[in-house]
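Troubleshooting: if your tokenizer reports a length mismatch, compare your output against this known-good record of 200 residues.
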Amino acid sequence: MDHRHDIGWDEATWLNPPAATARDGADLLVTARDGSDFWRTTGYGFVRDDGHALLTGFPAGSAVEVTFLARFDALYDQAGLMIRVDESSWIKAGVEMSDGVPHLGAVVTHGRSDWSLSPVPDWDGRLVTVRASRTGDAVTVRARTPEDPWRMVRLAPLEAEAEASAGPFCCSPRRAGLQVRFTRFTTGLADTALHEDPVG
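Known-good structure output:
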């Protein structure tokens, strides 16, 4: 049984409002600000905390899903799902343009950021769903397109007692004009096992 329920776009709160938002039917169109990003120190030596994230509560035992569509043209164009405790403890996962190809990846940050990527050239211009499921001291992140099965993206630590929020995010570190179409934002029950496919 599908226990997910939709989160209205007006029911969540922006961290760093984007350049523009608009409604197209049930979808939310988000235009990222030029230079927006989330990153802390590693490899690049700078801290960025001005990307755009629309966040709702993410308690233990729950899952959040975000579905989106975008054309990524510039290096580091990105969109997906963010999980946030504070400015130095967060996770972002989704699709990001790197070396001219869309990549599925995640950045996990606890004081300093790391970054993992896997190329998904066939996902270009397709709907993508990212799901984060919180159980115990961990978050399991998966992603898929409507035509593909779930892929494991990351198993990352998140303290069981941490007060976290989660929701759709996008950034455009190198240009203005990136627009992302978010088509669904849902919450529900956490997955019951690490290697079990989520409901739906």
